[in-house]
Amino acid sequence: MKKPHIPLETLQAQAMACHACPLADGRTNVVFGTGNPQARVLIVGEAPGKNEDLQGVPFVGAAGQYLNELLAYAGLRREDVYIANVLKCRPPGNRNPLPSEIEVCTPFLREQTRTIDPLFIVTLGNFATKFILKTDRGITGLHGKLYQTGKFKVFPVFHPAAAIYDRRKRTDLEDDFATLGEYLLQEGIVARTPQSVVREAEAHARAQAAGAAVPGASAAPGASGGLEAAGLGDAPVDSAPGAVEPAAPESSTSHAGEQESLLL
Ligand code: URA
User: Fold this and answer.
1) Residue 85 Cα: closest atom of ligand 1
2) Which of 153, 157, 44, 204 is closest to 108 using CA atoms?
3) DSSP H/E element including 179
4) Which of 77, 107, 184, 234 could join 190 in a cystine, given CB atoms 3.0 to 4.6 angstroms apart?
């Protein structure tokens, strides 16, 4: 028989009362997770930092600001997704999570995932990716591709904090979130992305040019071209990455590692 899903409020109350590892002694707040409890996209980070510990909310510092920008590349807003971390309490000095901490804390993430039941899980950085995909492979070789793990489509990317001072990683992250947007478009999870808006505007302009080339043909109504014509004049196209190949989620999914995911 299938285990019932535990309500997020119950899990959060359990996490707030948790003293299973020494991180509980140094915390200001448990950072359980926030966002849309019905999200089709779950974002998984590593562990709270200083600001997150103080506010009890994930990704509110510099990495969080950048994450918000990255979501827009995929046609997502922060309120569309649910955001959680591998660890719910801040490791001192932002050091890496210890295996023992991951072991005792990840039952929360596992149950959160079962309850939210997303279609996509976006893993930020090595710790989230290794836990969700149950792989020893590093993020450098895994990012930007879709992996099927059980019922979930897992999309690993670099951690936004790693890209703040590294231009090359920024480019990778922005390209990867644009690729994610293509997958989300195909699944009908987002209606548009900055790239799809550009594509529509270009198609519109081509149609207009073709119409204008036919003597006597009148221009299509509202065919002024550009983003305004697509009804999306305020989309962040200036910072949009270049076009990506159309994605083919099912056929291009890969299988990372031999081991089964803990989320199965
Ligand atoms: N980095 C993370 O991995 N999680 C946060 O919540 C903040 C920074």
Assistant:
1) 4
2) 44
3) helix 167-186
4) 184
**Predicted TM-score (pTM) of this structure:** 0.82
Handedness of CA 7, 29, 16, 89 (dihedral sign): positive
Shortest-distance atom of ligand 1 to CA 128: 3
Q: Whose CA is nearest to atom 7 of ligand 1?
A: 59
Residue closest by Cα to atom 6 of ligand 1? 58
Is-contact 73 244, C-beta < 8 A? no
CB atoms within 10 A of CB 76: 24
pLDDT score for 103:
98
Tell me the CA–centroid distance for residue 48 and ligand 1, in Å: 5
Helices 167-186 and 194-213, interaxial angle, to 10°? 70
- Cα distance between residue 30 and residue 24, in whole Å: 8
> Which residue bears the tokens 């299988």?
255
* 192 and 232 Cβ atoms separated by less than 8 Å: yes
Name the residue of 31, 52, 55, 87 to mutate for ligand 1: max ligand atoms within 8 A of Cβ. Answer: 52
Q: Which residue has the tokens 């450098």?
A: 140
What contacts 77, CB < 8 A, 6 or more positions away? 71
> Which atom of ligand 1 has the smallest separation from the CA of 31?
6
Distance (Å, whole) CA 117 – CA 151: 9
Q: What is the DSSP letter of 156?
A: E
